[in-house]
Structures are given as C-alpha cells and as structure tokens.
Amino acid sequence: MSLLVTVPTAELAADIIAAGPLPDGVHVQVWDMATPPPAERIDIVVPSYLGRQRFSSLDGIDVGLVQGQMIGYEAVIGSIPAGVPFANAASVHETATAELAVGLVIAAQRQLPRFVRAQDAGVWDRGFTSSLADRRVLLVGLGGVGRGIARRLGGFEASITAVAQSARTEHLDGVGDIAVHPLSALPALLPEAEIVILSLPGGPGTQQLFDAAMLARMPDDALLVNVGRGTVIDTDALVAEGGRIRAALDVMDPEPLPEGHPLWTTPGVLFTPHVGGASSAMRPRVAALVRRQIAHLLAGEEPENLIPH
Question: What pTM did the predictor assign?
Fold first, then answer.
C-alpha cells in the first residue's frame, strides 16, 4: 500500500524517519502548504506548529487526515475543509506543559523573578518566601495536562483537590486518590484554595470563567496559574485585582500581549509567552504520533485523537 505523508519541516521529516524503518510504500515529504500540493492525494498532512495555517491549500485535493501539532484546536477547526478528518496532538504536549505549570508555581511561590532581578542588580536580597509544601492546591481541569500536573505535584507534599466536568474519585500513580468535584462546585471551593491551576480548554463553555466575581472568591495572596487557554481568565478583571491575588500565566488574552498592556506591569503577575509545549520533548513526540497514525491507516483503523468538525 502506498501512503504519502507531508510535514512542514525537514527536521520533522528526519525525526519520523530516524525513529525506525517505515513500512514499504510509506513516503514522507516536506510541504509547508505555501506551495502547490505535491500530489492529488495526501494521506496525512501535518501543518506547521506556529505561524500561518494555510488550510485553503487543501481545497481540491484528496486528504486522508490532517494531523495537528497542538492540543488546542479552537482556532483552526473551522478552517479545515469539510469532510477532511482532523486530529489534535494529544499525547505530545501534556508532559512539557505540566512541567511548566509546576515551574511557574515554584517560581511564583519562591519569588524567583525577584531574586533574578536582584542578581542582575548585584544585590544580595535574602527574604522569606512561600512554599508549595503544605499548600492547598485546586486543579481546575483534569485532562491529560491536569493529570500530568497532579502527578508532578505528588512529591511536593501539597494537598490536591480537583474540579472537572463530573464528580468522582480519581486514583493517580504517585499521588493516590484525588477528590474530583463538579465544575458547579468551583465557587464554593475557591475561598479555601491557596494555589489554583487552570488547564481548561478554550471555547464558549470556559470563556472568562474566572471573571471578576470568581476572582473575588479567591483569598488574598492566593496564586492563580493558567496553562490552559488565556480566554478562561477575564484579563481586565485580573488587572483590576491590582496584586491582591498573584498570577503565573503561560497563556493570556490577548496573545501576543500588546506593548503597553497593563498586564505587563500588574503587581504579582509572572508570565511566559505561551511556551508550555515548546520544549525538547515536542519533536520526538510529534514524530511518534505521526508514526502511530501511519500504522493506524495501514491497518485500516481509525486514527487517534479525531476531533469532530
């Protein structure tokens, strides 16, 4: 069986090929979707990770699967031609994003930005900071990223509770049983949470879930961490808090943050520029996912991570 896979960069093509011999008839070709398609039939198209998504280039050709490189898909799903299957990159970014979430918590709790600034200024600035140990942590969202965060928090001696779509008790290796409350319980849980970590997807159901009223329920000096989607937090409401609560964000609304936006200088806010998945773990995991999708197609099986559209 002949099968053509296009990828946007030579580096990704090399990663796919380097992972082991491909089945006979499988060809991997570089196509950034900015030039005419290399064939009338492409079995798997992998668009670019960042930058312009040129889905109009798929019009008029036969495409078996569009394999995205991101977990999120809200911004692109409407641009993919009708009838073309689309899969997101679940399994690729969860580990790195969970790492960054825990890193943001530690950086904010132990005031690492303060000490970096002191080092730059040549100042020996000792101080007493907050811990992660013994803190009450509320995870809002318990999908792949949320579970990854929970597992990494397991060794930090923190108390972990979670909120998700449905109530349950979930057992995670290295953590034990976690009480999972329904999303409707969020307002009642926030006043007791010292650290709140968001890993929710975007979309109408989570749009500005953390609005002024919800933020007001958080106790003074609580830490709000967001590695899900920036639209989950009402940015104006967060700015209006004026540092009463702290925030550590990898995602925000708008992105990129415009020059002069008040979030740049809001007290108690630390952020990174949406780099949760941008690590050395990404490329080999994308390559592994593409190889699994190749195996599924060759076996006549349904691809992984299909997103209805």
Answer: 0.93
- pLDDT, residue 75, reads 77
Residue 241 annotated to the active site: no
3-92+280-298 and 94-271, same CATH topology: yes
Give the active site residue among 147, 229, 285, 291: 229
The catalytically annotated residue of 181, 246, 274, 285 is 274
Out of 231-235, 288-292, 305-309, which region has the weakest mean confidence (pLDDT)?
A: 305-309
Structure confidence at residue 289 (pLDDT): 98
Cα 236 to Cα 227: distance, rounded to the nearest angstrom: 18
Q: Which region, left, alpha or beta, applies to residue 242 given φ > 0 means left and ψ of -120 to 50 means alpha?
A: left
The question of whether 274 is a catalytic residue gets the answer: yes
Interatomic CA distance for residues 145 and 251, integer angstroms? 14
Name the strands in the sheet holding 176-182, side by side, starting at the edge strand that comes first in the sequence: 168-172, 176-182, 159-164, 136-140, 195-198, 223-226, 246-249, 269-271
What are the tokens at 99?
């790492």
Query: What superfamily would CATH give domain 3-92+280-298?
Result: NAD(P)-binding Rossmann-like Domain (3.40.50.720)
* 94-271, CATH topology level: Rossmann fold (3.40.50)
134 burial (CB, 10 Å; 0-12 / 13-18 / 19+) is exposed
Question: Which of the residues 74, 157, 255, 302 is marked catalytic?
Answer: 255
Residue 149: predicted pLDDT: 98
Helix (H, G, I), strand (E, B) or coil at 94: helix
> Where in the chain are the domains?
3-92+280-298, 94-271
- Known catalytic membership, residue 229: yes
